[in-house]
Amino acid sequence: MGKIKTQFQKFMIGRYGVDKLSSFLLYGGLAFIILFNLLNWPIGGLLGWAAIIISYYRIFSRNRTKRYQENLKYLTFTRRLKGEWNKKRNKFYQRKAYKFYSCPNCHEKLRVPRNKGKINITCPHCKEQFIKKT
What we know:
Keywords: Membrane, Transmembrane, Transmembrane helix
Organism: Carnobacterium antarcticum
Largest sheet: 2 strands, antiparallel
Protein name: Zn-finger containing protein
Order of helices and strands: HHHHEEEE
Strand order of the largest sheet: 1-2
Number of domains: 2
């Protein structure tokens, strides 16, 4: 068993290895295969196999800089998605205590407390003042 492990380690020298994008492609491909087999739709399973093949291609690739750049794009994309999701979730949780407005001048999003009647709101970004009912 130890000899096979060392041979595999020698084989992987200079290769890219597993990263977040490869893991996503691998597990996503497996999920696609299982899902479309349960739905009895074999064409969709081909997408799963394609994702798995791309994942293994990335893992065994020797072009480390290109694979690193692809992973970096994937990570920035997912980080942006998570940031947008967190903004929407936080706004949803704060909807009972705060009202949200956009500044008419610079369109900056503003948060003001609810149930204060008509108030004069000053935009902290452009110093524009406007009156809104909360």
